[in-house]
């Protein structure tokens, strides 16, 4: 098995076998140390990356929590506004019914008023006629 740094188990086995070989041992140790340094650098880079990812994860969790709180508040606000809308719609319906009732009452009053005007005119005409007839009768009696 090999990893991204090019270091594998076979290299370790070969390094252990080369320890017995003197100068080859020095070369192999230098190579192994170089690979170990690269692996440690990679490990540090990965640890930094993990810390950055964890920090990002924490930030995202906090942001999610904030968004969830905001969503809850918006839902509550929406419910309140829906309830207010229902109340206003009910009041509007009541006002429309009251208005229609008042219009109907005004119409009936106008009709009654017109009827009373007509009756008054009839009475006035009858009175004029009666006065005229009385005047005429007196006038005729006066002439005879």
Walk me through this protein's architecture.
- With 144 residues, this protein is mostly helical.
- It has one domain (9-143).
- The protein is built from 2 helices and no strands.
- The protein has helices at residues 9-18, 23-143.
- Helix 1 (9-18) runs antiparallel to helix 2.
- The protein is rod-shaped and about 170 Å long.
Descriptive keywords:
144 residues, mainly alpha, rod-shaped
Portion of residues in helices? Answer: over 70%
Number of domains: 1
The fraction of residues in strands falls at under 5%
SSE-based structural type: mainly alpha
Termini gap = 153 Å
InterPro entries: SYCE1
Pfam families: SYCE1
Protein name: Synaptonemal complex central element protein 1 isoform X1
Family: Belongs to the SYCE family.
Summarize the structure.
Belongs to the SYCE family. The protein is an all-alpha fold. It has helices spanning 9-18, 23-143.
Question: Mind sketching the topology for me?
Answer:
Blueprint: H1 9-18, H2 23-143
Helix pairs in contact: 1-2
InterPro entries: SYCE1
Pfam family, one: SYCE1
Coiled coil: 36-129
């Amino acid at each position: 098995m090999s990893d991204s740094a090019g270091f594998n188990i076979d290299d370790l086995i070969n390094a252990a076998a080369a320890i017995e070989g003197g100068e080859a041992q020095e070369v192999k140790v230098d190579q192994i140390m170089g690979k170990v340094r690269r692996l440690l650098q990679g490990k540090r880079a990965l640890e930094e990356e993990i810390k950055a990812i964890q920090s990002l994860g924490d930030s995202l969790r906090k942001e999610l929590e904030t968004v969830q709180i905001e969503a809850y508040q918006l839902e509550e606000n929406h419910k309140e506004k829906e309830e207010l809308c229902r109340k206003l719609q009910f009041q509007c319906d009541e006002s429309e019914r009251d208005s229609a009732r008042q219009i109907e009452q005004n119409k009936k009053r106008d009709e009654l008023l017109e009827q009373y005007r007509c009756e008054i005119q009839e009475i006035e005409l009858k009175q004029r006629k009666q006065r005229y007839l009385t005047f005429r009768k007196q006038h005729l009696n006066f002439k005879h």
